[in-house]
Amino acid sequence: MATSISATGFKGSWGTSVAGEDYTMLAKSVPKHVRVGKPVRAQPMMKNVNEGKGVFAPIVVVTRNLIGKKRFNQLRGKAIALHSQVITEFCKSIGADAKQRQGLIRLAKKNGERLGFLA
Asked: What's the pTM value of the predicted model, to 2 decimals?
């Protein structure tokens, strides 16, 4: 009994499928080598991923729009540097080592992202 596979469905019986007739016919119809092109990479977006997230994000966005990006980034850099100095002084006062200080600075950055200060 000859069986065939078509786009509309399987034509044949369970016995012919188990016997392997359909498999050999299918194997012959599939090309042995398939060309695969280079993966297409998307261009990286230069947008802030935290835009609009967090409690303080709207205030940060409005302030940036009012004073301009350049001045805003200068102020933000000064605020981050000042906060890092405060963390460093705190670590000195409690006797924390450099690894713990770095961990606190990273934690402050994560918290700032969550609250929307880095929007």
From this structure: 0.52
Residue-wise pLDDT for 23-56, tens only, equals 677 667 767 776 767 777 766 655 555 566 789 9
**Cβ pair 104, 91 in contact under 8 A:** yes
Name the average pLDDT for the chain: 78
**What is residue 10's three-state secondary structure?**
strand
Phi, psi for residue 55 in degrees, rounded to 5 = -65, -40
CA distances from 70 to 12, 23, 35, 74, 77 (A): 72, 66, 48, 6, 11
Question: What distance in Å separates the CA atoms of residue 106 and residue 49, rounded to the nearest whole number?
Answer: 18
Instruction: Find how far residue 18's CA is from the centre of its chain.
Output: 45
